[in-house]
Amino acid sequence: MKILFYSHTGEVSGAENILLLMLKKLNRTRFTPVAVCPGEGGLADEMRELKIPCKTVQTLEARFTWRIDRLFTYLISFFRTMKQLRKEILDEKPDLIHANSIRAGLVATSATIGTKIPVFWHLQDELKTHPISTSIRLFVAFSKRTRLISASQATADSFYGKLLKLIGKNVPLRVVHNAIELEKFEFDPANRTKIRGEFDLSESEYVLGIVGQITPRKGQLELVKTFAETLEKCPSSTLLIVGKPMFNQDHEYLQKIKNSIKELGLRERVKLLGLRNDVPAIMQALDVLVVNSKSEALVVVGIEAMACGTPVIATDAGGTKEMIEHWVNGFVVPFGDEEKLKTSIIELSQNTELKQRFTERGKEVVAEKLNAEKFITDLEDFFCRSVVDEGLEQQISSAGEIKKYV
To answer: Is the pLDDT of residue 194 over 50?
Structure first.
C-alpha cells in the first residue's frame, strides 16, 4: 500500500516529530511511503535521512485571521500550494494520503477532488472559535474520503464540535495517542551530572523546566511570573526554558519573557537555553517539568518527561487528563490559575515521597499506553481497515478501534 505523507510546514516541531516517528516505525513490507513538504525548515532533510523519497512544494501561508486583506493572501497561497500538491499526487498515485495537520488536510482533500483517494487528517491541534472552523467542519461533513486521526479524545471532541452532530454526518475517526520511543529516554545518571554541571547547578538545586516552542500558547511568560512567587518557599531553585520562537509574533513574545526576567530580578534564576538537541538529557536533569499550555492535543514533552522519571505539572488543556491523573502520576492544574500552579511547584519541592510516586507511575503509564509500538500498530490498522472497508458502519470505542461519529 502506497501512502503519501504531506506536511504543510517544513519546520520541525511537535507534530512534525510525531510524523517522523511514524515514518521511522512504519512497516516497509506492508507500506511504501513517499512524502511532500516545503523545502525550508529541515523536515525534508530529516525525511530523506529516513530513506523516504521527499518532494518539495511551497510553504502554505494560511492562519486564522479576522483581517480580510490577510485572508485574501492566505487564499492565494492555499490554491498555489494545492495545485503543486495535486501534481505530485497525480504523479505518485498513492492509495491514501496522510495529512499531518488540519491545514494539510484541507489542502490534500482539495487537491484530490475528482479522485477516490482517502485522505487522513491527523488532528494535532484544537480548533479555534472562528467562522473558518465552522467552514472546516462543513468541508469534512461533505467529504466522503476524509478520515480523522486524533492525538487525543479531547482534540477529537474539539474538532467535531456540535455542528457535525447536528448534521448527523458520519466521520470515521480513531484516537491514536501521541507516543515516544522509550529507549531514547532511559535514565542515565551521567546526563543529570552533565547538564547540571553545564549550568553550574548543584545536586541540591531544585530545577524546573519548560520545553517547547516559544509562543504565547505554551505559557512561558506566565510560568516565569509564577516562578518568581515560589522563590520565598523554594530559594534554591532554577527555571530552565528550552525552545525557540518560530514566527514573528513569537519573537516579540520572547522579548516579553526577557523583559519580565529582568524586571523580576531573575537573571540568575531563569536560563533561556534556546533550541537544544539533547532534550532527553535535559529532562533527566530536571526535578519537575512544567507544561503550562493554553492549548494542546497530547503534549509529547510531558510523555518524554515521564519516561525519563521526571514528575510533570501540566495544565488541563486538551488531552492532558488522558495521560496524567491528578495526584496519581502528576499534577493537573487549570491554565491561568497561578495559585494552584505555585502550590504544585512548592509541593513537589518538599514532598519526596510524592515525587517518587509520580516518577514510578509516570513511567508505567508511558510504557503501557504511550509507546511507539502501540502508536504505529493502531495507525497501520486504521490505514488498512479504512481503505479496504470503505463501508464501515461499526461504532466502536477509541481504544485502538474505529469510531464513526454520528
So the answer is: yes
